[in-house]
Amino acid sequence: MPNAPLFVSAKERVVAALFLLLLLCANLLWHYHIFKKITAKRSYYAKALVLNQYPKGKKQILKLQTKHLVFYTSTYEKLKDLRDRSVAIVMRSKRLRFADLFRPTYHYAYIRKVYPKDMRYRIKEAIAVQHGSKLTKELFPALVVATSMSKETRDILARYGISHLVAISGFHLGLLGLVVGMVLGFLLRPLAQKFAPFTNLSLLIALVVAVLAFGYTAFLGYLPSLVRSFALLLFGSLLAFRGIRLLSFETLAWVVAVVVALFPAFFFRIGFWLSVAGVFMIYLYLHHFSHRPKWRIFFELSVWVFLAMLPMSYAIFHRFASQMLLSPMLSLAFTFLYPLFLLAHIFGVGGMWDFALDWMQGGAFIPMRMPLWLLAIYCAILIAAIRYRFALFLALLFAVVVTIYQVA
């Protein structure tokens, strides 16, 4: 049945909720087993990826990711740049708490060994050498293999409101999947029509894309943003092939519940909830305006999501920059340019795009404040917009008025 609801009765919802609760409990028990195993010894020996490294006074701060946890540590040693390198670390495990497995905290640790450059790091170097400025040397590798960036580069991206474009997520997986699917369809459709006319080509292509997406996720080290996006895309594809209605707020809520049950640490990640909010904004617009021409939806949706997310950005990051107003236009351009970025770097001419980014310099943030009670009112308006279209316009007005009031 096309566009069928996810559940047809309250009994099915209760059974699904109990199953997810059991799944969450089993997951927490597994994490607790890992926690007891780590803390059973005085020291925790592990291989870790250096996610970030930056100076703070006389110290070097490192953000490390092992198989089981992400944490910060510091050292007075004058280390070379180890970002995106794998290292062997020793950490004092007795002070580790169970909650530390789900959120980054600080722990004393030291590096015993630096491993040779892996394939991901070599790809980073191969991309960086094609560029001239610090911005492009850091930005393009991050777009392809999710490598780290300096605070200066991250601030530039934040001022233009395009940080979400660089953090590899479902948006990138979706674009890559679309390109791969189109290429496979072009190559396989004539063969299928000639030799296997009864083959479900769409399902076959979807399976190939899913396998490639999983391989890409594994290659990048199961980044949280990519793992949750892959899980959402996979679950969404499964529902679509079963004829389940995807454009449903209830379906979105259940998908979020499934991801949290599978990956409890995501519950404590701001990035996860911001991505959920972004998807909610997309659903909200399509819920009321999906009947409009596709070209109009394409442009309006980008502007709507940008404006609708502003109050949440103020409440979390407390800042605004005038360059952010370019975000919708840059996001639209990125949709078309991302595959071209990849092709240019594959052929070793990625530097041809430097001219398009070297102008992204300068500017400053304006401090912004969004009290929690005001954010709660805004969220209530968004929830009301599920039923009432006028509340959607009220939310837009709210975001614009708050921005103008605080900037002025």
Helical residues, percent? 55-70%
> Mind summarizing the main beta sheet?
6 strands, mixed
Which descriptor suits the 3D outline? globular
Instruction: Enumerate how many helices there are, as a single number.
Output: 14
Using the CA coordinates, give the radius of gyration.
23 Å
Q: Extract low-pLDDT stretches.
A: none
Give the averaged pLDDT, no decimals.
Answer: 86
Protein structure class:
alpha+beta
Question: Could you give the order of strands across the largest sheet?
Answer: 5-3-2-1-4-6
* SSE arrangement, N to C: HEEEEEEHHHHHHHHHHEHEHH
Number of strands: 8
> How far apart are the first and last residues' alpha carbons, in Å?
53 Å
Q: Beta-strand level of the residues, as a percent range?
A: 5-15%
